[in-house]
Amino acid sequence: MKKVAKGKIGVFDSGLGGLTILKAIVKLMPEREYIYLGDNLRAPYGGKSQAEIFKYTLAGVEWLFNQGAEIVILACNTASSNSLKRIQQEVLPIKYPKKKLLGIIIPTAEEVKGYSQSGHIGILATEATVLSGAFDLEIKKRGQAINVVCQTGGKLVELIEKNENESIVLSEIKRVIGELIDRDGLIDVILLGCTHYALIADQIVGILPKNIKAIGQADLVAIKLSDYLERHKDVRDRLSSLSAVQFYTTNDSDQVKNLMKKFYATDIPISLASYSVA
């Protein structure tokens, strides 16, 4: 009897930030086989139209499925807010009925209330994520009495991707954080609603008033994925138990490679992924 190959856990991001999600997942569940894809060639997604984000995200997800991923995590809030439901509803049932696709906004929305004492939460995200209204919608869906204020992160993603001078990054952090706090003086928690921001979390915390804390998504998403696999034996049983991680990017320039290593906080072997976008 022919042995059926077990599948991988795929992690997709428009660029680099998803590496922080991947690292947390691998730390919690090291006994799995992972494949990461960063679409650095077309990054950042934050200022693109919903149609473009959908097209690019779908191409990346399909590439991961074709590489053996049984389940793919959209480790990008922009992709999650603008593409997840449509791919789940329109593509998976027809082309990939046994595959799974999960985002990171819903897991975050389920837990975010527990971090705030005042019930006033600020969310720092890309323009596309803010315009989608996804965080506000998912939080309200769960009947949580929270006042949510979403603020675009301005040029932060672009500055991070370019590995810009720290003083320039700090200046932009101060500007966007100041605007966010001015909109609601009762905010006591700021959610870093773009995975790129994890890399500048220390700088953000250093600028915040002492009564406001910043929270990321990486550990929260990792725990939620582990719980999901515990509850879905059919998916879990299709996954490989080989401890391995593969890293791919659509732009393997030296700058991108160096930034990927910086985001993952260790030296990693990086390969080029090439695929067409319809």
Architecture blueprint of SSEs:
Layout: E1 8-13, H1 18-28, E2 33-38, H2 50-66, E3 69-74, H3 77-95, E4 100-102, H4 105-111, E5 120-125, H5 127-132, H6 134-141, E6 147-152, H7 156-161, H8 166-183, E7 189-192, H9 201-207, E8 213-215, H10 218-231, H11 233-236, E9 244-249, H12 254-264, E10 270-272
Parallel strand pairs: 1-2, 1-3, 2-9, 3-4, 5-6, 5-7, 7-8, 9-10
Helix pairs in contact: 1-10, 2-3, 4-6
In a few lines, what is going on in this structure?
By secondary structure, the chain is α/β, with parallel strands linked by helices. It has helices at residues 18-28, 50-66, 77-95, 105-111, 127-132, 134-141, 156-161, 166-183, 201-207, 218-231, 233-236, 254-264, and strands at residues 8-13, 33-38, 69-74, 100-102, 120-125, 147-152, 189-192, 213-215, 244-249, 270-272.
Largest sheet: 6 strands, parallel
Strand content: 15-25%
What order do the SSEs take from the amino end to the carboxyl end, as H and E? EHEHEHEHEHHEHHEHEHHEHE
Choose one word for the global shape. globular
